[in-house]
Design goal:
It is built from 14 helices and no strands. With 375 residues, it is mainly alpha-helical. It has one domain. Helix 3 crosses helix 4, helix 10 packs antiparallel against helix 13 and helix 11 runs antiparallel to helix 12. The relative contact order is 0.12.
Length: 375
């Protein structure tokens, strides 16, 4: 990702809400000087970056094993159905044997997720932690108004706030370490109400405080607009990334390509099948019928493989979730911009935090169930 500032309006920048990218800290201190120390949390960024790296590495493994399973299975099936048109020579036995062994290898991956299961849990555990850290950060801004305001009264109060915040962050992370599997199961299976709030205590802002103007401005930019931009990015139907970076494309762009290709292959298979039916009336040669039948089955297998990849990536569920999330954020954001009432704005901010946890829970549930199964 190229360095960019948090106030860049041209495209969505990941994680600039936590001031991770180059130029973000300067932007925060320039635009929100009174509460810049609230937005800037170095210790949280360090922990976030660690879990983000672990999540990305595990996700790549999951996708690698899934693609291997589907590709190897498809190749093995293609080798089987195309046997009738192979040259009848002794040298073809070795390629056939290798491809069949590839099919067995694929079965080890595909049946029950024997190799990718632990990596999927590692991916989801660490992804859970990145999102919980993000929620912990913004819930503190929403639900700890008096603490935020007190920290803006002087240098000593600011330093005391930072020290207390780091202690609470260490305690929060410590509760997760060693229990990450249990936390993942809890978030997936428990009701939303029981997992939503990480900041248990709540203290409100003073409507007459000079701090609330910057708090609302920063929250609008870093939370409302960032989350809306994230969902919008995921719903883009095309990508500027090259084809070999397909897994970095927005979910909608991935779905458009995979569904389009699979539909094309199935259409070709139907056309070939129709040609076979015409053979009953026009007396094709036996060789032509064999080629048509083999081609129809082979193309259908390719279409099924692409559909399996689409299901394994969980794209349909992702797109539906992003669409609902964007609509929900849009409604809250519109109301937020059209009111100056402090209490009303805080309620809308609370609703957004609740919605973000809901979206995270749906994401974890969907990908926990997603499988690369060619069947």
């Amino acid at each position: 990702m190229c360095p960019t500032s948090v106030n860049d309006e041209e495209e969505h920048v990941f994680n600039d809400d936590l001031l991770i990218n180059e130029g973000d800290l300067e932007w925060a201190h320039r635009n929100y000087p009174r509460i810049a120390h609230i937005l800037d949390h170095p210790a949280l960024r360090v922990e976030f970056a660690k879990f983000e790296r672990l999540a990305s590495e595990a996700k790549q493994r999951v996708r690698f094993y899934g693609f291997v399973a589907v590709d190897a299975s498809a190749v093995a099936l293609l080798a089987l159905v195309t046997r009738p048109i192979w040259p009848h020579a002794s040298w073809t036995r070795w390629p056939a044997g290798i491809l069949e062994l590839g099919g067995l290898f694929a079965a080890l991956f595909a049946i029950g997720g024997l190799w990718s299961g632990k990596w999927k849990r590692r991916w989801l555990r660490n992804r859970l932690m990145t999102e919980r850290l993000r929620q912990w950060h913004f819930q503190r801004i929403v639900r700890c108004g008096s603490e935020v305001e007190s920290s803006c009264t002087g240098r000593a109060a600011m330093e005391s706030f930072k020290q207390q915040r780091d202690l609470q962050l260490n305690h929060f992370i410590g509760e997760y370490k060693g229990h990450s599997d249990n936390e993942l199961e809890s978030v997936i299976r428990d009701p939303l109400e029981s997992i939503a709030w990480l900041q248990e205590t709540s203290s409100s802002y003073d409507p007459k405080s000079n701090t609330t103007h910057e708090v609302f401005g920063a929250y609008e930019r870093l939370r409302f607009r960032h989350q809306y931009g994230f969902a919008t990015y995921k719903l883009k139907a095309e990508s500027d990334e090259p084809f070999w970076k397909f897994l970095q494309w927005p979910a909608k762009a991935q779905l458009v390509l995979l569904s389009g290709l699979s539909s094309t292959f199935f259409t070709i298979a139907l056309i070939l099948s129709a040609l076979l039916i015409c053979g009953d009336f026009f007396a094709y040669s036996e060789n032509l019928e064999v080629y048509l039948r083999t081609a129809a089955i082979a193309v259908a297998i390719l279409g099924a493989a692409l559909r399996t990849i689409q299901d394994g990536l969980g794209l349909d569920a992702d797109i539906e979730r992003y669409r609902e999330y964007r609509e929900k954020i849009g409604r809250l954001y519109d109301r937020f911009k059209n009111t100056n009432d402090t209490d009303h704005r805080l309620r809308l901010m609370t609703d957004l935090e609740y919605a973000s946890v809901d979206e995270m829970q749906d994401f974890l549930r969907a990908h926990y169930k997603a499988r690369f199964v060619l069947a």
